[in-house]
Every structure is written in C-alpha cells, then in structure tokens.
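Thread title: Can someone regenerate the structure for this chain?

I was given the following input by a collaborator and told the matching structure tokens would be attached. They weren't. Posting the sequence so someone can regenerate them.
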Amino acid sequence: MKRLFLSLVLLSMFMACASHKEYNTASFKYRSYRPAIQNIALSPNGLTPQQIKAISSTKAPEGFPLDISVIFLTDGYIDSDLKDILQFGIISQLKTNPKISRITIIPDFIIPKNISFVAIQELGIRSLSQLVIIFNMNSSDIFKEYIFMEGSKIKITSKIDYMIVDSYTSAILTTDRLYSEKIYNDEAFKAGEREKATREIFKEQAIILGNSINSLFENTDKQ
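Best answer:
Regenerated them for you:
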C-alpha cells in the first residue's frame, strides 16, 4: 500500500512538472496590451433631439490652427517597439501641418475599457481639442509579411483604420483605412532590414494620413 501511495505521489508530481509552461518574460516586457476592442459603442437608446440637431449642424473644421487629440486603440497584443514607431511617424507627420497647433496623445490609462462616442467626446473636450483622431490598430493587420516568388521576395503590408470626430458634437467628419505595401529582397530582409522596413511602411502610412487631413482642411477653405 505504501508503495502504491508513493507511486501515485511521484506520478502526480511528474504530471505537474510536465504541464508547467515556461514563459519568456522578456517577450511580455516589450509588449503593449489593451482589452480587445470590437467596436465603438453607440447610444443604447439612440440620440436625443438635441444631439441630432447638434450633430447634423456640425460643420467642417475652421478657425485654424486647431488643437487635436489622438487616440490609439488596439485589439490585442502589439509589440511596444512597433507601436512606438507607428505613433512617432504619425505624430511627426501631423506636426508638419501648419493648420494644427497642438497635438495631445491620450494615454492608455484614461481610455475606458468600453469606448464610446460619449467617451471620445469627453476625452476631446478634457484635452481642450477641437478634433479627435481615433486609430484602430488590429494586431493581425498592422504589420504583415508575405513570402512569394519562390521565397526570393517578401511583401510587407500594413492596414490601419481611423476616423476623425468633432469634440463638440461627436460627429464623424471622416473615416478611412490607411493601406501600404512594400516589396523587399528576401536576403536583404533577413540581413537586418526588418526594422528599416517597419519604419518605411509606417512612414508611408503617416504620409497618407497627412494627405487625407490636408484634403479635409482644403475642402474647408473652399466652403
């Protein structure tokens, strides 16, 4: 009986050790995480007559230069380095626009878990901004690698959705998707070009965004 009991104890200890998973803390250390965001919540009871009137009477931006807030939303794990490169590229591009005077990045710790237009409006007003730009960065689309042409080429793609909201009325002024792709030689890419490719494609995404905002502001001038 003692031998049977000892055997069961040893077996349970072995199974416990076998089922133990070793986590690479270094990989977690350099990752950014926010709860999954499937969509931006709408008002459960619809809009009030006052809200409808305010939103429908919203006009394109005027009174330049403008103060702008930026919200970066993610739907899961994204490498901090990847997110930092993207944010730096976008903010740098926005700073070149003479019609923007101040840019405020809304920190993750004050963005509510369940984001809504009410929350977006409040964050815009509290940051004293006329407009809020919201980026939705999908972890599976923000940076993708494809191997083709019998492994001799690598295609990099990036897709990021965004919209611009009026802080005072919560009206959506524009919404679009940033998409870029670049092709690299496989050998050069393996030799340490990945970071360079990341910076290049995110820089291109930032330029596309800058052109879109310029078009929005130029249309305002024509009105």
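Helices lie at 2-19, 25-29, 49-56, 80-95, 117-126, 186-222.
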